[in-house]
Amino acid sequence: MPESFVIETRGLLKSYGTQTVLNEVDLRLPAGAIGLLGPNGAGKSTFIKCLLQLEEKNSGEVKLLGKDIDRFGRETRKRIGYAPEQDCHIPGMVGCEYVTYCGELSGMPFEAARQRAHEMLDFVGMGQERYRKVDTYSTGMKQRIKIAQALVHDPDLVFLDEPTNGLDPKGQALILELIERIWSESGISVVLSSHLLHDVDRICDRIVIIAQGQIVAHDTLAALKERRRPEAEVVISENKDSLMRLFEEKDWSCSVMNNGNVKVVHGERSLNPLIEVMRDAGISPLEVKESPNALSELFLQALETGNGKTSA
Amino acid sequence: MKKAWSAKYRRWEGEGVGVWARRLSIARYGLKLCLSGKIIKIFLVLAGAQALILSGVFFFYGQLVAPESALLDWLERLGGEQVRTMFSALTSWALLYPEICVDGIYRIMFYLLSFSGPFLSMIIVALFVHRLIANDLASNAIVIYNSKALTRWDYLIGKFTIVSSILSVVWIFPVVVSWLLGNLLSPDWSFFYHSFPSLIRGVVLGVIAVVSLSCLALLVSSLAKKTGAAVAFWILGWISLSVVASVASFAHPAFDYVSPTQAIYSLSAGIFRLLDLVMDAQGMLPFFGSFFGRMSDGMDPSDLPIDNGEVFLPLLALGAYCVISIAVVSRRIRA
User: Fold this and answer.
1) Helix A272-280 to helix A240-249 angle, to the nearest 10 degrees?
2) Could you tell me if residue B28 is inside a domain?
3) Angle CA(B83)–CA(B87)–CA(B88) in degrees, nearest 5?
4) To the nearest 5 percent, what fractions of chain B are helix, strand and coil?
5) Which residue has better confidence, A239 or A10?
6) Regarding predicted confidence, which is higher, A173 or B90?
7) Which segments cross the bilayer (chain B) (predicted)?
8) Is residue A185 pLDDT above 70, yes or no?
9) How confident is the model at residue A261 (pLDDT cuts 50, 70, 90)?
10) Which domain holds residue B265?
11) Which of A45, A49, A184, B186 is in Cβ range 3.0-4.6 Å of A55 for a Cys bridge?
């Protein structure tokens, strides 16, 4: 049975005047929790907007959930949810009314939309605030209600554009937990667009890195991490010098990090040889972290590659 | 809170509704929002009250031409034999020439009604124009509409339904309701048949006015990025177009139709064709013949202080406004 893709683009081109924002993007993404990573202005939001026909593409083909958006745009969007980056509520509406309305706009009958709106507001953790006007909500509440309106019609694919923007760490953690549950509990594919590596690293099992309108890396998170140099961060309280000497003897480059931990590039497929070496030397580390900043480094490496490509 | 947060996600397996239901949802929520002010309700009641006034006029007229009505008895007692003779003649004319005596009255009343329409429309639309599209553009809600299972045309149809429903209370509701009530209360139900052409004329004018003014309201609402600006654009646009039209009409009379108000007035005259009615009355009814003869110092129709009005040019002007409005609005509502 052929693998089905939730997102397929071929030669997707979008430009504003002479500035090319998306440069012939070819991409095939299977269902899952997908992270769309890229620096600010990389074209992440434009990419999502082109998929949803919020922006008119210049050329190329786009299929969402197996359907061509040019031919079945309206029908396709019925099965898609979208939480935009910016505030987008309808002034004067209270929370539950707004989510109900969004359900109706997505093709739900009024009664079902109303019931479902309350379910989704429960799901995103909104209590009595739902009976207040959306205009009066805090940033965290606005983010939650955006997710509720994106889910109200039970889509098969949901796009979340920078959903943790403007939130404090606690608010970010709550929203990320919620997004994680969308995919893990319901099987709804999530595309999380963010410039925050931590958000994507925590939730997504597949990463797309976009820079200057091009896809510079695309794979599962595990595969991408494997591509990185095999390195580890060793948390140790004593015998730091002995440990450094031991690594140097093995020809593994190592350095002391700002936080006092030892970073080592061991070149092995797993951490086992590293642990064995330390055990034989009688050194007991507090913790050994595998490729702790892999995504971050990979991101920077991808951006450099992207820059190289575009400058070439 | 803890309990709410741990709520499980449940999949929805219900049956979806069609695109027209979604368009009507836009219209329903929009109407609720637009009619939320008190002042607009007062003006809509005023507009609706025209239906009652017209119904009253039609009722009294019906009673006057009914041979044994209580009103006629009372007037006869008041005025004596002379009044009896006059109303007997009126009854006979109504029976002999219903196209003049029945349809004519409806035509004149519906024509007079069309004078209040533009003014009421300007006031009423000014009270809600900012809540149509300007609100959605200012708050970015347009992105939500465009990301749902809707096209921009669905959105436009929904918004158009809001304006046209409200303006129908000004233009179409009084015509249809007064025609229905007036005929239901008339002594002879053949009035339904005889006054039907007037109903058609009134509804045609109403539909044209509602469609063109709705398009203009959507245009103005879509041009404003701030909600307050939409109201200012609407009122200033209305006034400035009237001024420009009246000045430009000195160069050529056709420029008068630059103003939607003037175009509607002229179209109204063209649809109701009162000069034709008077000419027919002159020819058929000796009483009216001599009356209009005295008014115009002769029998030449061009001497009468009324005309049939232009239809083509005002219709062209209103049509052009509609096309421009749709073209501009459809571009503006792209996310």
Assistant:
1) 120
2) yes
3) 115
4) 80, 0, 20
5) A10
6) A173
7) 42-62, 108-134, 155-179, 199-219, 231-251, 311-329
8) yes
9) confident
10) 19-62+98-273+308-332
11) A49
- Asked if B16 has any chain A CB less than 8 Å from its own CB, the reply is yes
Question: With contacts defined as CB-CB under 8 Å, which chain B residues touch A73?
Answer: 151
The predicted pLDDT at position A149 comes to 94
Query: Which CATH number is A5-225's, of 3.30.43.10, 3.40.50.300, 3.40.50.620, 3.40.1360.10?
Result: 3.40.50.300
Domain ranges across chain A:
5-225, 229-290
Into how many domains does chain B fold?
Answer: 1
pLDDT of amino acid A110: 94
pLDDT for residue A218:
85
Residue A91 amino acid letter:
P
- Residues in contact with B108: Cβ distance below 8 Å, sequence separation at least 6, in sequence order: B272, B274, B277
Which of B3, B6, B9, B331 to mutate to probe the A interface, most A CBs <10 Å?
A: B9
Tell me whether residue B111 is in a domain: yes
The reply to whether B56 falls in a domain is yes
| Phi, then psi, of B140 in degrees rounded to 5 | 70, 10
A28: pLDDT strictly greater than 90: yes
Q: Comparing C-alpha atoms, which of A108, A109, A192 is closest to residue A154?
A: A108
User: pLDDT under 70 in chain B at which residues?
Assistant: 1-6, 67, 285-306, 335
**Surface-to-core class of residue A69, CB atoms within 10 Å of its CB (0-12 exposed, 13-18 middle, 19+ buried):** buried
B-chain CB neighbours of A82 within 8 Å are 147
Does the domain formed by A229-290 have CATH 3.30.420? Answer: no
Report pLDDT digits (tens) over A74-84: 899 999 999 99
The residues near B228 (Cβ < 8 Å, ≥ 6 apart) are B130
Q: Which pLDDT score is estimated for B286?
A: 67
B45 touches chain A (CB under 8 A): no
What DSSP string runs through B231-264? HHHHHHHHHHHHHHHHHHTTT-GGGGGGSHHHHH
* Coil, helix or strand at residue A264: strand
Q: Do domains A5-225 and A229-290 have the same CATH topology?
A: no
Alpha-carbon gap, residue A20 to A222, rounded angstroms: 31
Range ranked top by mean pLDDT from A121-130, A211-220, B268-277, B322-331: B322-331
- The reply to whether B83 falls in a domain is no
pLDDT of residue B128: 92
In angstroms, the CA B205 to CA B111 distance is 10
Interface check B34 vs A, CB under 8 A: no
